[in-house]
Design brief:
It comes from Limnospira indica PCC 8005. This is Putative restriction endonuclease domain-containing protein. Pfam families: Uma2. It is a single chain. This protein is of the alpha+beta class and 154 residues long. It has one domain: Alpha-Beta Complex (tt1808, chain A). It has 3 helices and 11 strands. The strands form 2 sheets. It has a 6-stranded mixed beta sheet with strand order 3-6-8-9-10-11, sandwiched between helices.
């Protein structure tokens, strides 16, 4: 019989992640390693970041790429491909809690998580106005907008 996996506290996760060379997402004490991304994935993310930085220049909004975590709940942390936060008080060094925009570039290994789990959990963020899914295989972009707090509509 196998012994259960050890659970990490949020504090242990934050400390370990700051020193790790591999990114990990965190859900309820469990830590999941993130796979590397394809060339197409990286080019799409860089292009989107460049466009967003240019568009938001002069505003209080800041754009972060895939190395910045989002704290979705007390025990859930994700690494979106891009996030925008416009609140200057959203200033934790290793994660953000008040994103206005989150973008995920879909890949075969993450698409189902991005479409289901993350979509559901991101809806709990009151500040989130848009969640965007960008395909890297076909020309397709899906935008979920929050019309009512807690509900993202496509």
């Amino acid at each position: 019989m196998r012994s259960p996996l050890p659970l990490f506290t949020v504090e242990d996760y934050i400390i370990a992640e700051a020193e790790s060379t591999i990114r990990h997402e965190y859900m309820g004490g469990y830590v999941f390693a993130m796979a590397g991304a394809s060339e197409e994935h990286n080019l799409i993310a860089v292009n989107l970041c460049t466009l967003l930085r240019s568009h938001l220049r002069g505003s209080s909004c800041r754009v972060f790429m895939s190395d910045m975590k989002v704290k979705v709940q007390d025990d859930i942390f994700y690494y979106p491909d891009l996030l925008v936060t416009c609140n200057p008080e959203d200033n934790h060094r290793y994660f953000k809690t008040q994103p206005n925009l989150i973008i995920e570039v879909l890949s075969e290994s993450t698409e189902s998580t991005d479409r289901r789990e993350k979509l559901m959990n991101y809806q709990t963020l009151e500040t989130l106005k848009e969640y965007v899914l960008v395909s890297q295989d076909v020309m397709q972009v899906e935008v979920y907008r929050q019309e009512t707090p807690g509900e993202l509509d496509s």
